[in-house]
Amino acid sequence: MKHELAFAILEHWRDQDAIDRIVGTPGYALQFASDALSFFVCESADDFAKICRHELSVYPDDGLWGSVSELSGSELASFDAFIRSATALQSQTDG
């Protein structure tokens, strides 16, 4: 389940504007990521990538491993901002 959630988090980051528009709720993609990240112990894109590479990749050519390993510098910065925003949102709703 965590493997699929990790893929979903990546997709919600990549397509957040389209997802928000389709659902009709601004911020839906970020809220989804916030909820999904409650199953992981991570606060940054680097943490997320480590989890994907070391805990969730179940076979050598796993697409999840490739997805996080192939993020370029600007993509990684954008994904990091998304993860940090989602975890901050999670902290607000938890506390």
Quick gist of this model?
The chain has helices at residues 2-14, 16-23, 28-36, 45-56, 63-69, 73-94. It is mostly helical.
Describe this structure in words.
- It comes from Rhodopirellula halodulae.
- This is Integron gene cassette protein.
- With 95 residues, the protein is mainly alpha-helical.
- The protein has six helices and no strands.
- The protein has helices at 2-14, 16-23, 28-36, 45-56, 63-69, 73-94.
- 23% of the residues are buried.
Low-confidence stretches: none
The largest β sheet comes out as: none
Order of helices and strands: HHHHHH
Q: Average the pLDDT over all residues and give the rounded result.
A: 91
Q: Alpha-carbon distance between the termini?
A: 26 Å
Helicity level: over 70%
Question: Could you say which overall geometry the principal axes of the C-alpha atoms support?
Answer: globular
Estimate what percentage of residues fall within beta strands: under 5%
The number of E-state strands comes to 0
Q: Give Rg in angstroms.
A: 13 Å
- What is the overall number of helices? 6
Structure class: mainly alpha
